[in-house]
Amino acid sequence: MINGRVFVTRELAPQVIQRLRNEFSEVDVWEPFGPPTPTELAERTAGCLALLTMVSDRVDAALLDSAPTLQVVANMAVGYNNVDIAAAAERGVIITNTPNVLEETTADMAFALMLAVARRVVESDADTRAGNWGLWHPGLFLGNDVHGATLGIVGLGTIGSAVARRARGFDMRIKYTARNRQPETEAPVGAEFVPSLQDMLGQCDFVSLHVPLTDATRDLIGAQEFGLMKPTAYLINTSRGDVVNTDALLAALQDGAIAGAGIDVTAPEPIPPDHPLLQQPNLVITPHLGSATHATRGRMAMLAAENAIAACSGGLAPNAVIG
Ligand code: DGY
């Protein structure tokens, strides 16, 4: 038994909480649906050995300083841009993530957004529910084909390559750009490496983003990049909102620089209810649901719990990104 407390910042599946209760002498779970405020997070983390966080919880130097007993932050996400990694490293706090359990599910979501925006699924669903299904007309809600189109993948990591595998089933031509060419990953999916993002953008009907948020990828897609895309092309973002400049996206959708976008992430996140992006009919938007299936969220939560347990038991946390 680990003699210490873990604070879990959201209610998780009972079997995950039970697993933690079996190992930690104290398990504190945040019960409200909404996240703890930074003050509440600091209050509940004080005195803990472990903290199990979500992607929307900010783990910064101030939080770490308010919890000097903290040994591990187990983030329930593959991305960890919500954590100040340098501050954690300086204080010797282990940070873990949840790789290899959510990539296929997130790739499904990228494809769902691609199909939904290109075939106008959400727009036509809303119109039909509003009682506007009058006579059938050959020009009603025309969209664009996904099959046979050219897909540009930005970042051919585990999620990007899972998207590429799906694209093969749709007979798509696949291009990708990344910091380095990845011959072993590109060969099985038949993806063509394009060294420059700028060169790739104009060649694609769909551009799907699969990079982590770092200083190098913040605002990767801005006004200049939208200007290089085809006016018939679509942008798909299931990575992080800050990879795309929101004002530039809005302008591109309003001015017809691109045909549409499917986004699961925004900057800011959550998007304010009165944000003009929400008025754009050529936008399909979902609230950061990339990994949101029963099975995958269950696996992520259990993996985060296992990481917290391992780190506090003196073992190696299986998914330490630093520590
Ligand atoms: C991740 O794992 O980084 C996702 O964005 C969280 O759902």
Fold and architecture overview:
It is built from 12 helices and 13 strands. It has 323 residues and is of the alpha/beta class. Strands 8-7-6-9-10-11-12 form a 7-stranded parallel sheet, sandwiched between helices. Helix 5 crosses helix 7. It is globular and about 70 Å long. 41% of the residues are buried. (2R)-2,3-dihydroxypropanoic acid binds next to loops. The site of (2R)-2,3-dihydroxypropanoic acid has 7 residues, from loops.
Strand-residue proportion: 15-25%
Bound small molecules, by name, code or SMILES, are:
(2R)-2,3-dihydroxypropanoic acid
- The secondary structure category is alpha/beta
Count of DSSP-assigned helices: 12
Global morphology: globular
- Quick one: how many beta strands? 13
- Rounded to an integer, what's the Rg over CA atoms? 21 Å
User: What is the end-to-end distance?
Assistant: 22 Å
CATH fold-type name of the largest domain: Rossmann fold
CATH architecture of the largest domain: 3-Layer(aba) Sandwich
- Poorly predicted parts: none
Order of strands across the widest beta sheet? 8-7-6-9-10-11-12
Largest sheet: 7 strands, parallel
Q: How many structurally independent domains? A: 2
Arithmetic mean of pLDDT = 97
Q: Briefly, what CATH class of the largest domain?
A: Alpha Beta
Specify the helix fraction band.
Answer: 25-40%
Features:
7-stranded parallel β-sheet; Rossmann fold; 323 residues; binds (2R)-2,3-dihydroxypropanoic acid; 2 domains; 6-stranded mixed β-sheet; alpha/beta
